[in-house]
Records
---
Amino acid sequence: MSDLPRSALPRVVIVGAGGHAKVVIEALRAAGFPPPLGLVDPHPPGPTVMGVTVLGGDEMLPRLKAEGAEAAVVALGGNALRLRVGDHLVSMGYALPVLLHPAAQISPSARVAEGAVVMARACIGPDATLGRLAIVNTNAVVEHDNVIGSGAHVAPGCALAGNVTLGDRALLGVGSAVRPGITIGADAVVGAGSAVVRDVPAGARVGGAPAMPLRR
Ligand SMILES: CC(C)(COP(=O)(O)OP(=O)(O)OC[C@H]1O[C@@H](n2cnc3c(N)ncnc32)[C@H](O)[C@@H]1OP(=O)(O)O)[C@@H](O)C(=O)NCCC(=O)NCCS
C-alpha cells in the first residue's frame, strides 16, 4: 500500500512478463517497493524484463511461497485471466498489494481493493471505488463516485465522468470517454477512442463516437 512506510513494502513476485509487466516494474520502483523477487511466466520474452529475472513458469509459485515469498502482483493484461490468477495466488497464501504510482493523484476518500494498480498521472476522484485487481492505466481520469469493477481495465488516457460504473472484467479501450452516470456491464469491451453516451450491456462489444455495437 502506498501509505505504508517504504520499509514495510514487500518484495513481490510479478506474474506475467509481457508489456504490462514493464509498466508494473516501473511503478513498483517509483513507489519504493524493494526489488522484485522475479517474474513468473510460462512464455517469457527473454531471461529478464527491465532488469528483473524470469524465474520460470507458474510451477515456481508454490516453491517461491514455501521459500518465504509473501506478495505478488498480477501483471497480466487479460482481465478474466488476471482475476483467475489473482484468486489462485490468494488461495496459495500470497497477498496482493495495491500498487499506486506516486505520480498518480488519488482522492483520500477513494477506496482501492487488493491487487488494484493505478499508473502514472492517473487521477482517481472522491468516493471512487476500484475493485480487486482493477487497472487504471497511465493518464486515465476516473472521476468522483465511479465504481470500477473487479478485474476491469481503464486503458491509458480514458476519461470517465462522474458516477460511471464499469463492470467486472470490462475493458475501456485506450483514449475513450464516458458520459456521466453511464453503466458499462461486466465483460463488456469498449473499443479504442470511443465516446460512450449510453449504457453498454454486459458482454457487449462497442466502439466509435458515439459507441455502437461492433461486428463480432
Ligand atoms: C474493439 C477491439 C477489441 C476490436 O478488436 P477485434 O476483435 O480485433 O476487431 P476488428 O479489428 O476485427 O474490428 C471489427 C470491426 O470493429 C471495428 N472497430 C474495431 N475497433 C474499433 C474502435 N475502437 N472503434 C470503432 N470501430 C472499431 C473495425 O473497423 C471492424 O469494423 P468492420 O466490421 O466494419 O470491418 C479493438 O479494436 C480495440 O479497440 N481494442 C482496445 C485495446 C486497448 O485499448 N487495450 C488497452 C491496452 S493498454
---
Amino acid sequence: MVKACMIGLGRTGKIVAKNMIGRKDIQLVMAVCRPGSDKIGQDVGTLLGISETGIKVMGSNLLNEGLRIFKPDVAIDFTNPEACITNATVLARNKINAVIATTGFTDIQFQKLRSIAVQNKVGMVIAPNITLGVNVLQFLCKIAAQLLDDYDVEIIEEHFKDKKDIPSGTAIKIAESISEGRGIEDSVKILTENDAISLRGANIIPIHSLRAGGIVGVHKVMFASDEDSVEIMHQSFTRSAFAKGAIKAAKFIVGRKGVYDMADVLNLEEALERFANKQRDSHA
Ligand SMILES: NC(=O)c1ccc[n+]([C@@H]2O[C@H](COP(=O)([O-])OP(=O)(O)OC[C@H]3O[C@@H](n4cnc5c(N)ncnc54)[C@H](OP(=O)(O)O)[C@@H]3O)[C@@H](O)[C@H]2O)c1
C-alpha cells in the first residue's frame, strides 16, 4: 500500500484526494493546504463531502513536521508554481518522491524543480498533462507531424474561465512533441491570431487559447494542407481523469530516483515499439 500526501486542495486536488479514499493500493495519509487557509484543521473527509477520515488538513508551513510524523511514500502537488517549488524543496530534503501536476512554471522555475530532484537524489514525475488520453494525443501528434511533415499545424486549447496559465502546459507539450516529430528545435512560439497568420510556415506552431465557463479541458490539433486536413482531439469530461493519472504516477514514482514524465509512467514508447514489431511480423 502506497502512503500518499496530497498538497493543494483546490478544484483538482480535492478530486484526487477523494479518489484515494477507500482504495487498497494507495492510502491518503496527509492533506495539505495553503498556510492561513480556513481548510486547516478540518477533517479531509468533511472537506470532500464524505464521511470523516481522521486526517486533519494542515497548512504547508508545517509540511516538514507533517512528513516526519505521517511518513508518506509520495506526495502529489496541485497548487501553483511558487508554492510547488517551496513544497518540492521540503519534500526532497525529506527524501519524499513527488508527482508535480502543477503547471505554469517559467523556464527558470522548471529547471529549479528538476535540480531539486537531481541534487537531492529523489524521484519526481513532472506531469503538466496527467491524463492517459492527452498523453496518447501528444504521442499521436508526434507521429502525425512526421507523416504530414509539410502540413500547417494549429493547436487550439479550451479551459474554464479562471485557468491562470495561458497557453496550457499541455498545449506547450503538444507543440514540443510536434517539433520533435519534425526534428525542429525552438519552434514553439506563443502567438496572437494575427502573428500566427503572418508567420505561418516559419517553423511556428501557433497555440490558440480560449477561456470560458467550466470547460474542464479540450486540446485540438489540426494538420492542414491545401487538399485536406486531419484533426486529433482530446476532451476531459471530468477531473476524475486527472485523479486516475495522478494516482498512477504516484504508484510509479515510489522507489525511483530521477525525473520522469507521463510518457514514462504510461510506457508509451514501449507500446509503440510493440505495435511496430507486430506490423513487421505481419509482413514477415
Ligand atoms: N497536470 C495536469 O494535468 C493538471 C490538471 C489540472 C490542474 N493542473 C494544475 O494544477 C494546479 C491546481 O489546479 P486547480 O484547478 O486545482 O487550481 P485551484 O483550484 O486554484 O487549486 C490550487 C490550490 O492550491 C492551494 N495552495 C496555494 N498555495 C498553497 C501552498 N503553499 N500549499 C498548499 N496549497 C496551496 C490553493 O489554496 P487557496 O485556494 O486557499 O489559495 C488552492 O486550493 C494548477 O497549476 C493547474 O494548472 C494540472
